[in-house]
């Protein structure tokens, strides 16, 4: 039963995650007259994840309050190769999502309300119900996560933050992908971020269509730690996540979607943070001028290239580690960061495509072209 006393809003932001809170923070900074409310059922403490990105020193300075670690060297490793990249322009940052969200909530300073409740019933373009209360908003921005297709391609992972018994041998390098793990169930790698001498984040990540039991990822982490000679003193926390790697925008025609639900996730890598920051800053700027249209985050070209890349990974999972290593080897650290951020130019794309095994790519590119016809 809903309450028929309708509450009217100018702007309703549904979901106070990365996109929702970044938009709210930007709108609050404008000190505009729009009556705005964020609807988010969970506290920042209930959403404690590692959010990572490549950032320039200027961007890094703006994120200092939530930084867990920062590296200017990163590494991709397979049984055959070990590629180390160093960047002058970018650092690889890991942020605490809890700290980012808490800081964003604090910055609203009474300008924008947060309701700790979910929106479960969105009817039409303006009306919805939350906790039995009817609302009408002139503009709705909906960041509720996209539903992942049961058998769709996804990146799924389980990570541990641990305290180690012995000091870590090297805390200056972020391991983005270590493929020296079980590859029998799909493309699988370990991601490891040393926060300090005794503090490590380590994650087992799969790119496949099917989720695994939690114990499967835990086993992979334990084996990898054992192979590295790292002993666990304490398991501080565990995080799990699933990121769809297929175009989520086709599943819903709702034009009010922002963030990951609007397709802001890079399909070939799962990275979304930076694209969402740009999307929300641009949207807020537009709103200040009376333009409420949500900007696109990825170009058709980028999505097509990522789809080709993903279909090669799926069809040729045997050579998938080599494809990632070749991409890393073809580029220097700065170019690699641009590539991962989705801002690579023609020259970088040319270098990547040129370094790839040609036959699988041509085959999949051909399929993509015909699929879209
Ligand atoms: C565990 C995890 C780790 C990730 N790590 C990275 C990373 O390292 N780098 C990167 O770039 N990307 C990462 N991603 C991708 C990630 O999707 C984005 O970075 C980012 O969080 C997406 O922002 P968003 O606002 O679109 O979604 P979210 O941040 O997921 O926000 C959606 C919000 O909607 C709320 N919500 C859900 N249902 C309702 C409802 N019915 N009513 C109201 N609110 C609702 C949720 O509680 C949530 O807070 C990660 C994703 C996950 C799940």
Explain the overall architecture.
- This protein is of the alpha+beta class and 373 residues long.
- It folds into 3 domains: 136 residues, FAD/NAD(P)-binding domain, CATH 3.50.50.60; 91 residues, Alpha-Beta Plaits (2-Layer Sandwich); 73 residues.
- The strands form 3 sheets. It has a 7-stranded mixed sheet, sandwiched between helices. It has a 6-stranded mixed sheet with strand order 8-2-1-11-10-9. Strands 3-7-4 form a 3-stranded antiparallel sheet.
- Helix 1 runs parallel beside helix 3, helix 6 packs across helix 10 and helix 7 packs across helix 9.
- The longest helix has 16 residues.
- It is globular and about 65 Å long.
- 39% of the residues are buried.
- The structure holds flavin-adenine dinucleotide.
Strands in their spatial order, largest beta sheet:
6-5-13-14-15-12-16
The helix/strand class is: alpha+beta
CATH topology of the largest domain: FAD/NAD(P)-binding domain
Mean pLDDT: 91
CATH-level-2 architecture of the largest domain = 3-Layer(bba) Sandwich
DSSP helix count? Answer: 10
Shape: globular
Radius of gyration: 21 Å
The number of domains: 3
Give a list of the ligands: flavin-adenine dinucleotide
Largest beta sheet, briefly?
7 strands, mixed
CATH C-level label of the largest domain:
Alpha Beta
Q: What string, H for helix and E for strand, traces the elements in order?
A: EHEEHEEEEHEEEEEEEEHEHHHHHH
Distance between the termini: 47 Å
Write down how many β-strands occur, each being a DSSP E stretch of 2 or more residues. Answer: 16
Low-confidence parts, pLDDT < 50 over ≥5 residues?
none
Summarize the amount of helix as a percent range.
Answer: 25-40%
Percentage of residues in DSSP E strands: 25-35%
CATH homologous superfamily of the largest domain?
FAD/NAD(P)-binding domain
């Amino acid at each position: 039963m809903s309450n028929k006393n309708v509450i009217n809003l100018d702007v309703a932001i549904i979901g106070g995650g990365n996109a929702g809170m970044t938009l709210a923070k930007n709108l609050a900074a404008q000190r505009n007259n729009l009556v705005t409310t964020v609807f988010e059922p969970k506290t920042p403490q209930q959403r404690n994840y590692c959010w990572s990105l490549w950032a320039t020193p200027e961007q890094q300075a703006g994120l200092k309050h939530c930084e867990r670690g920062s590296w200017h060297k990163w590494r991709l490793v397979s049984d055959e190769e070990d590629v180390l990249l160093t960047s002058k322009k970018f650092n690889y940052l890991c942020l605490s999502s809890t700290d980012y969200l808490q800081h964003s909530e604090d910055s609203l300073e009474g300008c924008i309300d947060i309701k700790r409740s979910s929106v479960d019933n969105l009817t039409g373009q303006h009306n919805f119900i939350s906790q039995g209360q009817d609302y009408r908003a002139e503009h709705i921005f909906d960041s509720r996560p996209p539903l992942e297709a049961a058998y769709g391609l996804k990146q799924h992972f389980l990570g541990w933050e641990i305290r180690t018994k012995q000091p870590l041998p090297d805390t200056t390098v972020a391991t983005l992908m270590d493929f020296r793990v079980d590859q029998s169930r799909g493309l699988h790698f370990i991601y490891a971020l040393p926060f300090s001498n005794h503090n490590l984040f380590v994650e087992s990540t799969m790119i496949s269509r099917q989720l695994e039991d939690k114990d499967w990822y835990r086993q992979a982490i334990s084996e990898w730690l054992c192979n590295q000679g790292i002993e666990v003193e304490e398991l501080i926390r565990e995080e799990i996540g699933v990121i769809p790697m297929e175009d989520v925008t086709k599943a819903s025609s709702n034009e009010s979607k922002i963030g990951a639900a609007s397709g802001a996730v890079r399909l070939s890598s799962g990275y979304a943070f930076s694209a969402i920051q740009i999307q929300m800053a641009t949207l807020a700027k537009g709103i200040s001028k009376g333009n409420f249209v949500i900007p696109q985050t990825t170009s058709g070209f980028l999505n097509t290239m990522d789809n080709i890349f993903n279909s090669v990974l799926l069809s040729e999972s045997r050579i998938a580690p080599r494809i990632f290593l070749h991409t890393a080897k073809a580029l220097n650290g700065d170019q690699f960061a641009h590539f991962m951020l989705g801002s690579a130019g023609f020259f970088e794309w040319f270098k990547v495509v040129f370094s790839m095994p040609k036959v699988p790519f041509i085959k999949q590119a051909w399929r993509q072209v015909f699929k879209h016809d």
